[in-house]
């Protein structure tokens, strides 16, 4: 048995005890406070700040509302440079604020925005950069920050995948003007639905908190056309339960990642993508690339996995830039996005989550290895 296989027996987090969840629900109900910054909301903001090593966390009902609010808080107008290789919410947030996305190609090694292509895409209309820490792999934050300073641009990180990711020398969330997290049910840390904005200072947090509550400053004063982005008490309580075991869950994901790599390494036509430059990755996804040497196309392998009960995803396919609301933009042209186009045609994300069992992982691996012999 390989060392990777042995690792799978070490830690397998369990669900929170049912009595704990019932007790939290009873406490919420007895308090009579279901939303609007209740005690669980306040406890979760404080706990997340401590865990992530930041001071100013604002909880949201979901990450998309967080992105929209971040753009409003920074008063962004004009064009925003962003990636086509992401979930549609990244670009949709720009359209909601009547901003123009300017798509830039990705670095094929990291699958994040290529800083040099960012520089080449800047125009007099460019107001901001919205990079994505794709699959939780940190962007080249130093290069992006340098470009932003040079051209006077705002930087909003879509950090939907990056919960718990740590750099070796500083805090990932200390970069950019704002970072936006998602706590959707598919994420490493989730509150069923939810998200957060991490602000650099108290003044910006205060503005963000006002905007997520319709723009209210107090009971009789509204200062902006805000939105209802508040996280409720039920989601906040779930987050506190999740946070209790988050390190064990990330460790378990790491074991599964290692197991996949051990068993799939050397399969002809299957490229195991790198883990990025994180000092501690969160293993939020396990993407593979299906190259031309593999006997099946990416879509044929995807269908075979599905036929065998494996819920794999072609993530991210299609590119955002191919959808009807974006494909007429000059920057959406396939010739402008060769690396993103290639990777979107080859990528499959394999199942990875803490409760995944060894025999289930072996079934995923067996489908791929048997297909390689077709």
UniProtKB/TrEMBL annotation:
* Gene Ontology molecular function terms on file: pyridoxal phosphate binding; transaminase activity
List every position bearing N6-(pyridoxal phosphate)lysine: 187
Q: Which UniProt keywords apply?
A: Pyridoxal phosphate
Give an example GO biological process: polysaccharide biosynthetic process
Q: Where does the record place the catalytic residues?
A: 187 (proton acceptor)
- UniProt-listed Pfam families: DegT_DnrJ_EryC1 (PF01041)
Family per record: Belongs to the DegT/DnrJ/EryC1 family.
Entry-linked PANTHER family: PROTEIN RV3402C, TRANSAMINASE
Q: What is the official name of this protein in its record?
A: dTDP-4-amino-4,6-dideoxygalactose transaminase
């Amino acid at each position: 048995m390989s060392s990777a296989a042995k690792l799978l027996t070490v830690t397998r987090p369990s669900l929170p005890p049912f009595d704990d969840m019932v007790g939290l629900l009873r406490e919420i109900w007895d308090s009579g406070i279901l939303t609007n910054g209740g005690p669980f909301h306040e406890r979760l903001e404080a706990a997340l700040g401590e865990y992530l090593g930041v001071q100013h966390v604002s909880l949201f009902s979901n990450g998309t509302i967080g992105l929209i609010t971040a753009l409003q808080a920074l008063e962004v107008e004009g064009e925003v440079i962003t990636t086509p290789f992401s979930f549609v919410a990244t670009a949709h947030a720009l359209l909601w604020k009547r901003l123009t996305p300017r798509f830039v190609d990705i670095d094929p090694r990291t699958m994040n925005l290529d800083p040099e292509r960012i520089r080449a895409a800047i125009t007099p209309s460019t107001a901001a950069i919205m990079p994505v820490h794709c699959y939780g792999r940190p962007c080249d934050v130093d290069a992006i920050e340098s470009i932003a300073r040079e051209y006077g641009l705002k930087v909003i990180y879509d950090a939907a995948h990056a919960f718990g990711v740590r750099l070796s020398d500083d805090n990932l969330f200390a970069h950019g003007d704002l970072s936006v997290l998602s706590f959707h049910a598919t994420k490493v840390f989730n509150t069923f639905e939810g998200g957060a904005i991490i602000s650099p200072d108290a003044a910006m947090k205060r503005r963000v908190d006002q905007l997520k509550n319709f723009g209210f400053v107090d009971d009789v004063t509204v200062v902006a056309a805000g939105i209802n982005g508040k996280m409720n008490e039920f989601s906040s309580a779930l987050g506190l339960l999740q946070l209790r075991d988050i390190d064990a869950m990330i460790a378990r994901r790491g074991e599964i990642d290692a197991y996949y790599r051990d068993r799939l390494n050397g399969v002809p036509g299957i490229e195991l993508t790198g883990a990025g430059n994180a000092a501690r990755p969160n293993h939020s996804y396990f993407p593979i690339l299906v190259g031309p040497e593999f006997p099946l196309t990416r879509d044929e392998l995807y269908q075979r996995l599905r036929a065998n009960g494996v819920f794999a995803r072609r993530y991210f396919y299609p590119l955002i830039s191919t959808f009807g609301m974006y494909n007429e933009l000059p920057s959406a042209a396939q010739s402008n996005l060769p690396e993103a186009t290639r990777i979107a045609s080859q990528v499959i994300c394999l199942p990875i989550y803490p409760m995944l069992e060894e025999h289930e992982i072996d079934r995923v691996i067996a489908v791929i290895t048997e297909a390689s012999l077709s």
